[in-house]
Queue: 3 jobs
Job 1
Amino acid sequence: MAFSLPSVASLNGPLTAQSLAVLKEYLPSPVPVLGAIDRRIPMPLKQLAAEAPLNRLFARAIADGEFDDFENRRVRLEITGGQPGITIGFWAGRLRVVDGPGEATIRGSLAAFRTLAERRQDPDQLFFQRRLVIEGDTELGLGLKNLLDSLEWNFSPRKLLFPRT
């Protein structure tokens, strides 16, 4: 007995959207699981996984000196609830993943960070709606937000992880 798979076009219909909305509402948050995984990953592996893609994504801006004001500074990006999170610094012309707190922390939901990365909404709106929050050195956090907003970049997980495809 053979089963036929639905066409890709049929997966973009209203039933799919409604099903996804129900799943999002009633499934438990993935944050605790992501936090548990995050705590078990050694820092060198996090650095290996994150630094090269970040530096590729912002290579032009780094070469143009756009990140120079952030030399020796640290910003933590954190999912609401404290875990998982990543602290990023800028040293010697490279973005680095570092262990420890940031001078500024930008905190929000996975959905808010994804919206920010994909540039689907103005970053100021995300902050005014309190979907993203800056704590600590707010001047540093706002400086980074303004820099990211001013740059021409295109977030694509596929391009970041597989730059030659």
Job 2
Amino acid sequence: MAALREVSRSARSLPLSQIRHSYQLCQRRCAATQAAEAVLQDLETDSTLGAPELSPEEKKIFRPWKRAADRKYTLPSSRYQYHPPKYNRGPLHPIQSPPSSDPIARDFVPGPFNLPRLRQTYQSTVASDLMTLAYNHKPPGESHEHEQHEETTDRLRGWDGSSPYHKNRQKRAPRGSPVLKLVERDITFRNIPEIKEITIATFVPEAIKEQDYLLVARTMLLAITGTTPEITKTKSNIAQWGLKEGERAGVKTTIYGNAAYEFLDRCIHIVFPRIKDWKGIKGTTGDGSGNLAWGFQPSEMAIFPEIEVNYAMYPSKMLPGCRVFVKTTATSDRQARLLLQALGIPFYGELRN
């Protein structure tokens, strides 16, 4: 009875058969613990880190590098070395290339070390929405060669036939433009528009007379992009501005991947909302090939958090503005504008295709 009183009240309420079963389990556990302790006793307690250092005589004998240098033949590469295949010969070939996430792969790129919020939003929401909004149903079996032919004839000029050499010649390019614009392709799951790169450039004509303006511009772009900018030179002579060809009067830098999405995220959620009476980006911007651009005034550059936190380091009268060029994988300004609108950039005025 004295032993039963030492047991807790909840244990005393259990039936006798259950108490016996739990007692047998405890005995088994104790036996397993004792067996594990017996195995641990057989292990060596000494570590190789505490081994004594080799004597000078032993060091002369133990020279693996000398043994490898004296070896007249190389070790078989199939057993001691692995080189991934240089060419991918199909999914049914017995030798397959390792995935790009494997460090031994030829196309291995470490990272990504971070995932920007705007890029994650694009991958989870914007990409599927763009494909749905721009879906153009084409019934299977229907021919679309006639539409493509009409679109090509509007862009190219034909020959008048005044010479026999005009026969079977290709169409001529349109007048006034040395390069044809890209034909807008339908958005499918293979070519959803996305951000390819962003170029930030600034023009500082005052740097011709005083190089400190160029230093401030480089420091500003380095702070907001995290990359080292390059100095640009003038390409022509402009007498009204006192510019000569080949003079250093500008700075530019290009960012890719996650850095581009992070810069665009700061513009959308920090800089644009704090600009007073900001309407948005003009709808006529673009080069016709899916690349859009906008500019920042010198007073608006101070809104960037990287400059605002150390604003005293930058002379306010020497801080220049900049021009932002967003290059996308879209084939028209309409698709690029649809992408930036989905990311949160508004447009105003007349919209140009």
Job 3
Amino acid sequence: MTDRSPRLDDMNDRSREVFRRVVEGYLETGAPVGSRTLTRHMSEKVSAATIRNTMQDLEHMGLLGSPHVSAGRMPTQLGLRMFVDGLLEVGDLEADDRRRIDQSMADSEGDVTSLLDRVGHALSGITHGASLVLTPKHEAPIKHIEFVSLSPERALVVLVFADGHVENRIFTPPAGQTPSSMREAANFLNALAGGRTLRELATVISREIAARRQEIDTLAAELVESGLATWVDQGEQGERLIVRGRGNLIGEAGAEVDLERIRSLFDDLERKRDIAQFLDLAEEGDGVRIFIGSENKLFSLSGSSLVVSPYMNADRKIIGAVGVIGPTRLNYGRIVPIVDYTAQLVGKLLSDRA
């Protein structure tokens, strides 16, 4: 493996073609692809030995692997990610797939739950995978919010709305968070939550962060100008105020008070940044996204992928999502337009009902 992630630009034309054909062959059959198979399909006439050498180079880059020594090659998770991001050709939605999706939503009567249940059933049948349908986000004011740590990489947010509705959402928390820091974040949010939606809470937190930032800048300005302190990475997430010659501050009560105030403000700023990140993670999601293998924290079963797209209301706000879960050798070129079209159609139908 190299010190940095490989890129398509690192490959010559032959390496790129071998890589593309191995991945496409694997996605079609689910089996490793051998050098002799590739010799029959390459655009230039090359020997099986030359292709084997190219495959070894791609294996060294971490893009291909083999189940055992004598087998052909298959893409690694890194290889699949590179293929999906740089070489995947997304086809047009097939007419039969469009017809079946349209039929599942032809009867728009009944409640939203029934409609989304039909959507999930249709997606599962069309793609032969498991479907994922997240119901519309609730926009009522928050009554209570709680964060529960499930593991270092998974947490649960419990949202209790003023109208009695309750939602549980799983997310990946910012690195380094502890159960106590999550309780502190929840307590802070609950103190502000009265009558506010999640989106409004995020706006309030942003204002708090800006206010803390301004207080720090004002208090630090005199210390910096006097040469007693200097900024490092000012304005960045990892910014620090380095104090020089602490001995010079002894006896200068005003400077010491300012310093303690600045330290307190920095701590408060970091807490509010973490809380803002919690809210962002509970709200985020845009466009069709593909999660391969362990990239997918919620469905990180061995050999699984998730293709998911949010759907929006008439105000272009994300209110839910639809997706397909299946093996990593999904036909991504076909699945992506299916998920994209379904999400757009669900968003339109729900907007029309509003």
